[in-house]
């Protein structure tokens, strides 16, 4: 059926809105499947909004080459944010080539599956002409000329000989030959225009390659590597405003709680939440990047 003029105007207006406003695109047309739940639209949670507004959006608007090393903890949903960001650029811009990389096949299937879900649940009027759609690549034909490719981090030539505008390397700490993989992407992702290279991983113990990269990049003001400025992202539990129990007075602070108060000025509401979560707190919510590697 052919859209009426008012319907066509509404579609065009939503198209422009989604292109200009990533958060609106997520909330209106991008669908996710949370664990053990039904499909729902992607409403960015506080950790996702924080990283988007502090890092992704400013760099994109300034047309900067952004490098992020993200030390994941539980329940911050960074992989979902980055996959939505990559897909948004592939769907609403032209000539974008993006890449998602993971440490093994099951992880890659889960991560790349998010993009396929975004695509398959677009409103019918928003679906671009598809050139390819399989387990390794989602490509849109002209005039989009965009693609999102997926590979396991075991191919030495990944990224080489290709110009990429956005790369997500998920669970990089568990990838074989990470130095070779990183060098390939540093060559492939432009350093003179808006681009993203995100190394996103949970810790893999002390003395690992990922810890070395984290320590090198975790300097005041960020660090330079491969012609781009790198920044580290670690969201401690106390930073999340939702990790609070109101109207509780906390007494008899232990040494760790006292340290949190002195260093980060946390309040009783957070300490009460921490105590209520104490059985899993240290495992799921390390208080600092350094403690994540213990």
Description:
The chain has a 9-stranded mixed sheet, with helices on both faces. The relative contact order is 0.13. The N terminus is likely disordered. Helix 1 crosses helix 2 and helix 4 packs across helix 5. By secondary structure, the protein is an alpha/beta fold. The protein is globular and about 65 Å long. It contains 11 helices and 11 strands. 41% of the residues lie in helices and 18% in strands.
Q: Which structural class do you get from the secondary structure elements?
A: alpha/beta
Cα(first) to Cα(last) distance is 60 Å
For the sheet with most strands, the description reads:
9 strands, mixed
Discrete helix count:
11
Keywords:
nine-stranded mixed beta sheet, two-stranded antiparallel ribbon, disordered N terminus, alpha/beta, 294 residues, 11 helices
In short:
The chain has 294 residues and is α/β, with parallel strands linked by helices. The chain has helices at 5-20, 22-29, 46-61, 78-92, 105-120, 178-188, 209-217, 255-264, 268-276, 278-284, 289-292, and strands at residues 31-32, 40-41, 65-71, 97-102, 130-133, 137-140, 146-152, 166-170, 195-201, 223-225, 228-233. The radius of gyration is 20 Å and the shape is globular.
Which helices and strands, and how do they pair?
Layout: H1 5-20, H2 22-29, E1 31-32, E2 40-41, H3 46-61, E3 65-71, H4 78-92, E4 97-102, H5 105-120, E5 130-133, E6 137-140, E7 146-152, E8 166-170, H6 178-188, E9 195-201, H7 209-217, E10 223-225, E11 228-233, H8 255-264, H9 268-276, H10 278-284, H11 289-292
Parallel strand pairs: 3-9, 3-11, 4-7, 4-8, 8-9
Antiparallel strand pairs: 1-2, 5-6, 6-7, 10-11
């Amino acid at each position: 059926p052919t859209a009426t003029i008012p319907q066509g105007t509404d579609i065009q207006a939503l198209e422009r809105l989604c292109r200009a406003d990533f958060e609106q695109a997520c909330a209106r047309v991008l669908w996710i499947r949370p664990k053990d739940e039904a499909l729902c639209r992607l409403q960015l949670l506080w950790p996702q909004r924080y990283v988007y507004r502090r890092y992704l959006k400013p760099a994109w608007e300034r047309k900067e080459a952004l490098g992020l090393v993200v030390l994941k903890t539980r329940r911050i949903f960074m992989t979902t944010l980055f996959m939505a960001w990559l897909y948004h650029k592939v769907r609403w811009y032209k000539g974008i080539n993006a890449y998602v990389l993971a440490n093994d096949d099951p992880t890659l299937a889960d991560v790349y599956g998010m993009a396929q879900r975004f695509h398959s649940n677009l409103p019918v009027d928003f679906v671009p002409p598809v050139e390819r759609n399989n387990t390794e690549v989602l490509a849109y034909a002209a005039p989009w000329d965009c693609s999102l490719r997926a590979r396991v981090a075991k191919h030495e030539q990944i990224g080489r000989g290709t110009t990429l505008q956005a790369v997500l390397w998920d669970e990089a700490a568990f990838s074989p030959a990470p130095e070779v993989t990183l060098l390939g992407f540093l060559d492939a992702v432009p350093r003179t225009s808006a681009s993203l290279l995100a190394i996103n991983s949970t810790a893999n113990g002390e003395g690992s390659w990922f810890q070395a990269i984290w320590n090198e990049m975790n300097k005041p003001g960020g660090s330079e590597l491969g012609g781009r400025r790198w920044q580290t992202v670690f969201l401690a539990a106390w930073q999340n405003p939702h990790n609070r129990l109101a109207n509780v007075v906390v007494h008899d602070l232990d040494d760790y709680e006292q340290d949190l108060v002195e260093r980060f000025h946390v309040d009783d509401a957070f300490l009460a939440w921490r105590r209520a979560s104490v059985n899993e707190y240290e495992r799921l919510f390390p208080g600092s990047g350094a403690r994540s590697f213990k």
